[in-house]
Amino acid sequence: MHCLWVFVLLENIRVVLVNTSHPGNIGGAARAMKNMGLSQLVLVDPQDFPSAEAVARASGAADILDSARVVGTLEEALVGCRLVLGTSARDRHIPWPMLEPRECGVAACEQAQQGAQVALVFGREYAGLTNEELQRCHFHVHIPSDPAFSSLNLAAAVQVLAYEVRMAWLAAEELPLRPEVVVEQDDEPVTADELESFYAHLEQALIEIKFLDPVRPRRLMSRLRRLYGRSSVSKLEMNILRGILTETIKAARGQHQKQEKVDV
Amino acid sequence: MHCLWVFVLLENIRVVLVNTSHPGNIGGAARAMKNMGLSQLVLVDPQDFPSAEAVARASGAADILDSARVVGTLEEALVGCRLVLGTSARDRHIPWPMLEPRECGVAACEQAQQGAQVALVFGREYAGLTNEELQRCHFHVHIPSDPAFSSLNLAAAVQVLAYEVRMAWLAAEELPLRPEVVVEQDDEPVTADELESFYAHLEQALIEIKFLDPVRPRRLMSRLRRLYGRSSVSKLEMNILRGILTETIKAARGQHQKQEKVDV
After folding, report:
1. Mean pLDDT per 10-residue run, chain B (264 residues)?
2. Digit-coded pLDDT (tens) for A205-251
3. Which residues in chain A are contacts of B251 at CB distance < 8 A?
4. B236 vs A contacts (CB less than 8 Å)
5. Given B110, B140, B173, which residue is the final one in a domain?
6. Residues in Cβ contact with B192 at an 8 Å cutoff, skipping those fewer than 6 apart
7. A36, B208: Cβ pair inside 8 Å?
8. Which residues of chain A make contact with B156, given a CB cutoff of 8 A?
9. Which of A81, A179, A220, B2 qualifies as a cystine partner to A119, CB 3.0-4.6 A?
10. What is the CA radius of gyration of chain B?
11. E-assigned strands of A63-173?
């Protein structure tokens, strides 16, 4: 029973590699994952996969490659995820909530322990994640490398975060179970895809009330993504926010009438 | 002065690779070292070095390869070392003092800080270190991999220990683990009274768009207070939210016209 629970825990943590160029790095990442007990690999638009070079570098972790999901967009890779952690270099224009790898391991295990799906997202070998991709992440993770030579090999970066996940998992396994927090169903946080639908709705509403000029959007949506992304919005809260947006759009269109309200 | 001392500290920690088969792993190890601020590489009887493949995998860390010392025996590689840490799988015949990677990082930094030379020793890709070689080590280090698939790639193992050395070094230096985020004045959180003004404005807007019925408010505002209250809303974000409310109210009243926007 205990073992089953443990198994489920690490299964909840997926590694997402975005637009990887070199299949050797996919194989190296798979090996690093399996060494650390992770099994769920998602490849977003890989440039060369499946590949004999990936299998060679996986060196015994070919099963991870065989069961890898290949998808077209990051959005698809994140469906169902309640916590999305994206690796990032320094110096982004918009400061984002940052975790160091150790905190990342702890946060991933805590969420997975509660039954949530977690994604660790790694960008391209040379260019990393785009700003748009980074804004889909709730937190950014920076591996504290030497600023003079800061870019880790992709498989090496996967190794470091997978290692920290395993360290947190081993530590959690030795701790007594914490008092159970009764989570109301209402309090369950939304998933990454639900958050994306909200952002699309929000953007539409902001255009309708003429607060957002689609021709000159500036950084408005990314500022709002940062705010809501770090706030662990619950499903109930999301219902309220979506209801507000629906009514806002109706008001902007002069379509006011008596509406069914969200039950709070 | 401080910087010089820091420099000397990490210079005191050498990475020793014993009888490596694949030059790609030597290159990968060099890159991992340089990423983590280590520079001293010693190769004991490498099977293929120098090598173009090593340079390719080093990817910018060729200087580590150029300055690597090549020696014939582990004994030569360890001359002058006060602390020798050897990577090992579990279950050796002779029980030996074991460290986990985190303890290894701390021990290496402590010794190096006192001016001692430290060696991190890594064995062959398939066979690891021999018993004789392991007995030259003061401590064995085991990376806590999944027992079902425990053997890390050589460069990945170097990455994990080099990472733990860097983490211990950053902690000892009291350097920030996270990249310094220059907090713009805009990012300063709002005060409680600013939040209260926002709630009043929000409530007014919700009434105007007919989402909130003042006669029967239910728990709507308290739900929204809980959401925004835990989100550490910054002054810039508050300006955006207030701007949205202002435009929403205008839209509800049919007072749309070209407005000055909040600068984001």
Report:
1. 52 97 98 97 98 96 98 95 88 76 94 91 94 91 93 97 96 64 57 87 95 89 86 89 95 70 54
2. 999 999 999 999 888 998 898 889 888 899 999 999 999 999 999 99
3. 208-210, 248, 251-252
4. 223
5. B173
6. none
7. no
8. 28, 31-32, 35, 155-156, 159
9. A81
10. 29
11. 69-71, 81-87, 98-99, 117-122, 139-141
Q: Is residue B229 in some structural domain?
A: yes
> pLDDT tens-digit profile of A39-50?
999 999 999 999
Contact yes or no for B36 and A146 at CB 8 A:
yes
Residue A242 has what pLDDT?
95
Q: Which residue of B has its CA nearest to A140?
A: B178
pLDDT at B94: 65
**Residue A80's domain is classified under what CATH number?**
3.40.1280.10
End-to-end CA distance of chain A: 38
Domain that holds residue B217: 185-252
d(CA A99, CA A85): 9
**A153 contacts in chain B (CB < 8 Å):** 28, 31-32, 57, 59, 155, 159
Does A135 share its domain with A247?
no
Residue from A10, A90, A94, A146 whose CB has the most chain B CBs within 10 Å, to mutate: A146
Element (H, E) at B71: strand B69-71
B36 with B108, same domain: the answer is yes
Q: Rank A12-21, A111-120, B126-135, B194-203 by mean pLDDT and report only the highest.
A: A12-21
User: Which is nearest to A19 in space by CA: A72, A85, A79?
Assistant: A72
